[in-house]
C-alpha cells in the first residue's frame, strides 16, 4: 500500500472539476484522482493533463449517485492507498427547464444524494486532518428560501441530517403532489430543485463538520462564481481555471481553523444564516452576463449566425423561465 497523500475530485472530466485537478497537478505533492461517471470521457480528460514525468492525474470511474460505483471506488482506494487526504465533491447537474418530479429527483439524487454517498462510503477513508470541500452555489445560500418554517428549522444550532432530509423530501413531495409554491423560494422560484439541492448541500456541510471535528478534519462549501462551463452554456464572469483557484487554495493553504463555513468564490467567508441578504441566485444575472460576453466579442463573431442562434436561445430561456414563474 502506498503512503503518498491522496486527493480525489468528483465529476472532474470537464468544467470546474477538471480545472481543479489541473490546479492540484501543479501544486499537490501526492496522488490525484480525476474521476468521472463516463469512463471514456474521464480517461480522455486525464490523458490531456498527464505529463511524461508524472503519473498524475490517475483516473477512476465514479458515479456519485450510484452506490455500487461509489463502493467500487471506496474499495479500490482502501486497498491501494488506505485513505484520502483531500476530497472535493464537485459533481453536479443543473435543473432542466421542466420542473417535473423525475427531473427534480435526478437533480437532488446527484447534487445532494452524491454528497450523502460520499459521506457514507468515502468519509470512513478520510485521514486525520483531511480536507473536504463541497462545491455549492449561490443557489446554496439560505437567502434562496422564503419559507420561514424551513429558514428557522435549517438555522437550528442542533441541525441534523434528518432536518435536511425532511427539507429535501418536503420539496420533492410538493412537486409530486402539485402543491409546490414558487413563493417559498427567492427569484420567483426559478430552478427550485437546484436551489434545494445546493441549500441542502451547504447545510449538510455544517453537520458533517461537527461529526468530523474530533479528527481535525475540515469540511467547507463554496460558491464558485458564475463560471463559463457547459452547465451555464459558457456564460460566466470566470473561466474554469480562474474558478478553480480558490478551491485549490482552500484545500492546500487554508488555516486548519476554517471549518464548516460557506465561502464565496473570492475567498470571502459568508454568513450562510443571513437569510435576508442578497446572496441568492437571480436568473437575470445570467442574462446580464450573457449580454456583457456578447458585447466583448470581436466583430467577425458578433455577426456570425452561431452567435445569433445563441442570443435567441438565451432570450427564449429567459422568457420561458419568466412565464413559468
Ligand atoms: N458553472 C457555474 O457557474 C457554477 C455555479 C455554481 C455552482 N456550480 C457547481 O460547480 C460544480 C461543477 O459545475 P460545472 O460548471 O463545472 O459543470 P459541468 O461543466 O457541467 O461539469 C459537471 C461535472 O459533473 C459531472 N457529473 C454530473 N453528474 C454526475 C454523477 N452522477 N457522477 C459523477 N459526475 C457527475 C459531469 O459529468 P458528465 O460530463 O458525465 O456530465 C461533469 O464532469 C457543480 O457542482 C455545479 O453545481 C457551477
Automatic annotation (TrEMBL):
Origin superkingdom: Eukaryota
Keyword Membrane: yes
Keywords assigned by UniProt, alphabetized: Membrane, NADP, Oxidoreductase, Transmembrane, Transmembrane helix
Keyword Oxidoreductase set for record: yes
Transmembrane segments: 302-324
One matching Pfam family: adh_short
InterPro entries according to UniProt: NAD(P)-bd_dom_sf (IPR036291), SDR_fam (IPR002347)
Similarity annotation: Belongs to the short-chain dehydrogenases/reductases (SDR) family.
Name of the protein in question: Uncharacterized protein
Amino acid at each position: 500500500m502506498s503512503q503518498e497523500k491522496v486527493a480525489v475530485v468528483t465529476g472532474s472530466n470537464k468544467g470546474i472539476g477538471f480545472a481543479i485537478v489541473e490546479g492540484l497537478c501543479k501544486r499537490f505533492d501526492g496522488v490525484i484522482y480525476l474521476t468521472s461517471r463516463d469512463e471514456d470521457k474521464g480517461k480522455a480528460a486525464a490523458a490531456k493533463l498527464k505529463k511524461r514525468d508524472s503519473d498524475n492525474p490517475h483516473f477512476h470511474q465514479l458515479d456519485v449517485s450510484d452506490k455500487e460505483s461509489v463502493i467500487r471506488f471506496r474499495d479500490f482506494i482502501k486497498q491501494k492507498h488506505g485513505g484520502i487526504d483531500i476530497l472535493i465533491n464537485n459533481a453536479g447537474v443543473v435543473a432542466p427547464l421542466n420542473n417535473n418530479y423525475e427531473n427534480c429527483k435526478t437533480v437532488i439524487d446527484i447534487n445532494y444524494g452524491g454528497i450523502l454517498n460520499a459521506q457514507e462510503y468515502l468519509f470512513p477513508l478520510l485521514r486525520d486532518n483531511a480536507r473536504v470541500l463541497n462545491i455549492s452555489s449561490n443557489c446554496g445560500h439560505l437567502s434562496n428560501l422564503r419559507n420561514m418554517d424551513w429558514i428557522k428549522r435549517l438555522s437550528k444550532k442542533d441541525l441534523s441530517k434528518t432536518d435536511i432530509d425532511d427539507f429535501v423530501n418536503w420539496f420533492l413531495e410538493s412537486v409530486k403532489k402539485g402543491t409546490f409554491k414558487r413563493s417559498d423560494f427567492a427569484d420567483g422560484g426559478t430552478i427550485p430543485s437546484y436551489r434545494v439541492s445546493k441549500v441542502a448541500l451547504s447545510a449538510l456541510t455544517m453537520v458533517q463538520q461537527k461529526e468530523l471535528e474530533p479528527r481535525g478534519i475540515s469540511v467547507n462549501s463554496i460558491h464558485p462564481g458564475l463560471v463559463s462551463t457547459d452547465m451555464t452554456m459558457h456564460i460566466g464572469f470566470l473561466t474554469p481555471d480562474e474558478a478553480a483557484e480558490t478551491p485549490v487554495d482552500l484545500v492546500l493553504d487554508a488555516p486548519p481553523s476554517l471549518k464548516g463555513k460557506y465561502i464565496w468564490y473570492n475567498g470571502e467567508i459568508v454568513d450562510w444564516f443571513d437569510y435576508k441578504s442578497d446572496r441568492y441566485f437571480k436568473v437575470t444575472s445570467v442574462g446580464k452576463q450573457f449580454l456583457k460576453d456578447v458585447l466583448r466579442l470581436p466583430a467577425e463573431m458578433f455577426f456570425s449566425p452561431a452567435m445569433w442562434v445563441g442570443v435567441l436561445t438565451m432570450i427564449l430561456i429567459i422568457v420561458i423561465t419568466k412565464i413559468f414563474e
